Description:
- The chain is mainly beta.
- The chain has one helix spanning 93-103, and strands at residues 2-9, 19-20, 26-35, 39-53, 60-74.
- Helices cover 6% and strands 29% of the residues.
- A hairpin with a 3-residue loop joins β3 and β4 (39-53).
- The model has no long low-confidence stretch (mean pLDDT 83).
Amino acid sequence: MREVTLELPVKEKWGEGLVAVPEGETIVIEGRLESVHEGILVSATVDTGYEGVCGRCLTDIAEPLRVEIQELFAYPGEETTDFEVQDDHVDLETPVRDAIVLSLPFQPVCQPDCPGLDPNTGERLAENAGEEQREPLDPRWAALQDYTTDHDDDAPRRTAVSSTVENTEES
Length: 171
């Protein structure tokens, strides 16, 4: 058994979408390599960070990321396996990259309760939380702004003009 600690830079961007591990980001691998009957068992913890934008308000975010992997690198033989020991070495790039990319958030947010963007102005709602919107969302409903839910008898009310209709039907 061997325990190793590696600090390596990412050679190319890992991940697509709203967040990714950028090129040049450092990856720290703390691992244990154990010789087993079938090959070499690698157990490791990988620490790195990702960058991107919030899926709701589009602000820049950068967060740390920690993943754990465990993979068996089989000795070359007749059986086909995903990973093999080659010249008494194991290549960790593929399992580490796969674990990191699969653990990246699909819909990242800058904070758990991020309200997003205002659909009318495009501004962040978190910045304008104290301001109340005064103009109606739809001008067709503007007349309803004068009405209140208060049922006070002293409140002025609009009255409808009623016309009397004569019944001309004979019985």
